[in-house]
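Suppose you are handed a protein chain with no further information: no name, no annotation, nothing but its sequence. What can you learn? This example shows the usual starting point.
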Amino acid sequence: MYESVGYETYSESSAFANGKEGQLPATGTINRGFEPYDYENTPEGYDLAKANLKSPLDSIDRGSDKGKELFEIYCISCHGAAGDGKGKLVEREKFLGVPSYKDRVITEGSVFHVVTYGLNAMGSHANQLSVHERWLVADYVLKLKSQL
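A reasonable first move is to predict its three-dimensional structure. Written in structure tokens, the prediction is:
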């Protein structure tokens, strides 16, 4: 074990029948930690998510400050602290037309869908936020909407 056997890059291996180390995943498998999202990035998918998608958060998660914390990191610069669409980037006219949550008919499903895929000038945040974190943000957005 002091010196391990060295192998040449891209050389054949006897570990698998086809001689390749890098194998394709078995049919029907999904990545560890991946949660399938069955709504497409279309207007119809948005409408379905808006009508049918419900938050899996429990009452403890809904009452936590984590949603606010995530909102302040990822959303506040455009949407503003109150969710009125008057964030710093809007004030500096870097982005125009960011809506106030008060003007929108939104549900937790529609907010989750938009955070997942993005909409109009807003990009997707699926790479920055886990599924659980996106639900926390959606919950906090609805809380802001109720205060406007």
